[in-house]
Automatic annotation (TrEMBL):
One example of a Gene Ontology biological process annotation: enzyme-directed rRNA pseudouridine synthesis
Example GO molecular function: RNA binding
Database matches in SUPFAM superfamilies: Pseudouridine synthase (SSF55120)
Family, similarity comment: Belongs to the pseudouridine synthase RluA family.
CDD domains: PseudoU_synth_RluA_like
Protein name: RNA pseudouridylate synthase
Catalytic activity as recorded in UniProt: a uridine in RNA = a pseudouridine in RNA
């Protein structure tokens, strides 16, 4: 999450979001190893607001919005895989839906198909790093968040 001190800075940061100029990297623990070690996923997503659930639809769906992400497998162990995910777009539930769409649901994600999850369990999706351009100085700013020390993160 990024905060701006002035309305001008907020406007410039919003522009970076619109232009997809921010680099966002997430880490995800998934239940299955993806068939490909790395790939770009391109889907069209539709959000059912009444059910608060997103689904993959045809590119011809009138309310479908294009969603793009790149992932790569960092490691696999004990039937789980750790993925690095870079968003190219920012759709609701995008990572969860697109990974589930290739048969690799996020550990603990009850909404999008994870097995062996418990009610109230936090899903294994972590906002790992963010790089933006300073809204005034135009220099890159990168921030990173260390992984939690709890399972399943602690097996890596």
């Amino acid at each position: 999450m990024v905060f701006a001190k002035t309305s001008k800075a907020a406007s410039r940061l919003s522009d970076q979001v619109r232009r997809n100029a921010m680099e966002r990297t997430y880490l995800a623990v998934v239940n299955e190893k993806p068939k490909q070690a790395s790939s770009r996923l391109v889907n069209y997503l539709y959000k059912n607001r009444q059910k608060n659930k997103v689904s993959i639809v045809s590119e011809h769906h009138k309310e479908g919005k294009k969603a793009v992400l790149d992932y790569s497998v960092i490691a696999s162990r004990d039937g789980l895989s750790l993925l690095s995910v870079k968003l190219q777009t920012g759709r609701p539930h995008q990572i969860r839906v697109q990974l589930a769409g290739i048969g690799t649901s996020i550990w603990g994600d009850q909404k999008y198909g994870a097995q062996y999850s418990k009610v109230g369990q936090q899903i294994a999706l972590w906002a790992n790093s963010l790089t933006i351009s300073h809204p005034v100085q135009k220099t890159p700013i990168s921030v990173a968040s260390p992984l939690p020390e709890a399972y399943p993160w602690n097996i890596w």
